From TrEMBL:
Its main location: cytoplasm. CDD domains: TrmD-like. The gene is trmD. It is found in: Cytoplasm. The lineage of its organism: Bacteria, Bacillati, Actinomycetota, Actinomycetes, Kitasatosporales. It catalyses: guanosine(37) in tRNA + S-adenosyl-L-methionine = N(1)-methylguanosine(37) in tRNA + S-adenosyl-L-homocysteine + H(+). This is tRNA (guanine-N(1)-)-methyltransferase. It comes from Streptomyces mashuensis.
Amino acid sequence: MRLDVVTIFPEYLEPLNVSLVGKARARGQLDVRVHDLRQWTHDKHNTVDDTPYGGGPGMVMKPEPWGEALDEIIASGAEGQQPVLVVPTPSGKPFTQELAVELSAKPWLVFTPARYEGIDRRVIEEYAEHLDVREVSIGDYVLAGGEAPVLVMVEAIARLLPGVLGNAESHRDDSFAPGAMADLLEGPVYTKPPEWRGRGIPDVLLSGHHGKIARWRRDEAFRRTVQNRPDLIERTDPAAFDKKDRETLSILGWGPREDGRFGRVAPDVEE
């Protein structure tokens, strides 16, 4: 997979040289190219921004350097190959595990992390006419720039590529991963030693009984989801819950509502 990032702070992307992403780059699984947007400016101050039309606070990134940068990067691809343009912005669609999986199947992504008040809208409109453009938000908050979201998205996408994780099964039970646990957060995990500062681990994990362990993990996933993300259970198709799931939810004070979906139907209980 090829990843291009255009930024005015190339040094911000240095973490892409370490950990799993760095190892994937070293093995040739990821071709990451970081570009300094100021290379496509033509004045002595390397200006990339200007005041917004219509007034208002802040500055807006100019279309000319972005257009030149993107044209050159797109032209550098193989004949007939076009990238997906990923635009980090708080006004974009939420970045989810589902989207990470979708993007991990694409051969080429170009990220455009902006600063100030964002990029002149005409740039997005221009490239949306002939590219797959995704405006994406990593959360309901505003950062100083789009580089941190790029790091988040690249790591989420890269770990899904074949061979990047040491254990190919590692991401199967992740929170939000497609599959049987897709609507539940991942439960707690433990490792050696069996006792630490007077705290042990659940006996079931030492039992060797794979069925009981799987059930315990699912029950704990329900507990954590009810506590931290109840909306995930509320929007889940009740058909996804088996008899044991429903028993666990009942203990946690949850049950079917009039619309058939599950919701809290009893006072809070210990979670």
